[in-house]
Design brief:
about 400 residues; alpha+beta; Elongation Factor Tu (Ef-tu), domain 3; OB fold (Dihydrolipoamide Acetyltransferase, E2P); 3 domains; 4 helices; disordered N terminus; disordered C terminus
Length: about 400
């Protein structure tokens, strides 16, 4: 009896297990079509490369220097009686800066004037004697020797007059040098002497220095390799000169702020500095407010030229291969990913200027690079890089070394 009771309890359990197993088998059979569906292609964000017109610039360091410099030195020996300027003030050309004691020079001028007057006083008498001797010589009243002596005395008197005239002029010039004047207009620095100091003519130490600061020079060294590269690109037609604007130079101050006025490129030196391998570029910068001072370190933004077919891509779209070469991933018409080796020219804001490796119409992957690899099939989704088409030309603010 007990055995048949256990049998009755086991039969329903077996039926329940069989039903559950059948349901699982059916569920597995029902899901097999879904497992066989191929995975969807990953989506990537792309931009289509289009040529742009940009003005390329080079940013180089430089230092300012005065437009004109005059070191004030005495031209005569003497004692400084007065200093007639304030240190650090603006000076006009011809303004008296120092006065040297003129007493001895005034005496020398008076002496020369007196000697000149004495020589001029003797001249009429000597000239009259020479004239009479010439008449008497015709009548044989005087000897030839007497006439020759009278003619020689006349020439000597005339020479003495010319000599003392020159002496008077020299003394007048020396007296004028006792007033030391400014040869140029500009700003004067500190004085190296005070009232009562003894100075000597053309002494090695300047009494003061005047510098003209408006306009002011900016001297910028440029490497010869960069100069040759720019010349070659212009000759090959990769860059075009943009006329008068090509000579305009923007200035960036030491603290990163922009100087409000543009400078003008003046000339390039003809000699290469053998220690640095660079040539000097000179720029004239307006400085009406005197904001720029000599010796300041600034950066000059020089315009190289205009590139009308520039290829620019976002920096996040460019990566590096194991050898360190820049590469970018592109999507072809079939939706397959390919890898392009690039040659980069420089960074322009948040984009790279591509010299080689990309052409107009290429679709460059910008987003989703981490989940794909070359050869995969992807779904390209165009994205907006934040720049409106037809925007104005860009400008490179910082040169980047060319990558191969």
């Amino acid at each position: 009896m007990r055995h048949s009771a256990r049998l009755k309890e086991m039969v329903p359990r077996a039926l329940l297990l069989a039903a559950l197993w059948g349901g699982l088998v059916l569920a597995g059979c029902g899901s097999s079509p879904m497992a066989a569906t191929p995975p969807q292609a990953p989506e990537v964000g792309t931009i289509t490369v289009a040529p742009e017109r940009i003005v390329l610039t080079t940013e180089l360091p430089g230092r300012t220097s005065p437009f004109l410099v005059a070191e004030i030195r005495p031209q005569v020996n003497g004692l400084i009686q007065k200093r007639l300027f304030e240190e650090g003030s603006d000076i006009k050309e011809g303004q008296v800066l120092y006065e040297i004691d003129p007493a001895s020079f005034q005496a020398a001028l008076n002496n020369a004037n007196a000697a000149l007057g004495k020589a001029q006083a003797y001249l009429p008498s000597i000239r009259s004697r020479a004239s009479r001797y010439e008449e008497l010589l015709a009548d044989k009243a005087v000897s030839q020797q007497d006439y020759d002596d009278a003619a020689a005395a006349l020439k000597q008197a005339e020479a003495d007059i010319e000599y003392w005239k020159a002496s008077v002029e020299t003394a007048r010039i020396q007296l004028g040098y006792t007033h030391i004047t400014a040869p140029i207009s500009g700003r004067i620095g500190k004085s190296s002497v005070t009232t009562g100091a003894i100075v000597t003519a053309y002494q090695p130490v300047a009494l003061a220095t005047i510098q003209q600061l408006n306009p002011i020079y900016l001297d910028v060294p440029q490497s010869t390799s960069e100069m040759l590269r720019l010349k070659r690109r212009l000759e090959e037609g990769l860059l075009k000169s943009n006329g008068k604007n090509h000579s305009k130079v923007s200035i960036i101050m030491e603290d990163g702020t922009a100087y409000p006025l543009e400078g003008t490129f003046q000339f390039r030196d003809i000699t290469v500095d053998p220690t640095t391998g660079s040539v000097l570029l000179r720029v004239i910068v307006p400085n009406p407010e005197g904001f720029l001072l000599p010796g300041m370190f600034v950066r000059a933004v020089l315009k190289e030229g205009e590139n009308t077919q520039a290829i620019l891509v976002p920096q996040q779209s460019v990566s590096r291969d194991p050898k360190g070469n820049p590469v970018a991933l592109v999507v072809d018409e079939a939706g397959k990913v390919g890898q392009r080796k690039l040659v980069l020219d420089r960074a322009i804001e948040d984009r790279w200027l591509v010299a080689e490796g990309l052409a107009a119409g290429d679709r460059v992957i910008v987003e989703g690079i981490q989940k794909i690899r070359p050869g995969m099939t992807v779904k390209s989704v165009p994205i907006n890089d934040g720049r409106e088409k037809g925007a104005g030309p860009g400008a490179a603010t910082q040169p980047a070394p060319k990558s191969n």
